[in-house]
Write a structure and sequence with these properties.
The chain has about 150 residues and is of the alpha+beta class. The chain contains 4 helices and 7 strands, in the order βααβββαβαββ. A hairpin with a 2-residue loop joins strand 2 and strand 3.
Amino acid sequence: MQLIETTSTDARFVVLCDELDTDLNKQNGEVLQKLYKQYNTLEKIQNVVLALQDETPVACAALKEYAPGTAEVKRVYTKPLCRGQGVAAAMLCALEQHAKQQGYTRLVLETGLNMLPAQRLYHRLGFHQIPNYGHYATLPDSYCMEKPL
């Protein structure tokens, strides 16, 4: 498995984000996902990490600035056949290093209440639950987390 840094305009990242949206539609239903879609655009994404297996992109994760000193983790996705192999954890650790190098002191993220494997991963990596922030504050299906850096 190889991790590479790229940008939000990388076609491989865009394709993985489309797969993520399809996966979330199946898990959460299209009505709920339409509500969240506006918060998951690729605009203002600063850092992207892709995981490649034999040159094929199998996972992605990204950062964007949320507030001064705080970066938001966005678009974390691993193809189903590659899950449970530590790929997402490796990408998140790489993003954490990017965030520190850029002077961020905190990471935040939002996942779904029903996304228990994701919640467990984030807890294992040192994130803890916080009150829903920003536009997620009024969305009852959100589960927000943070990690001081």
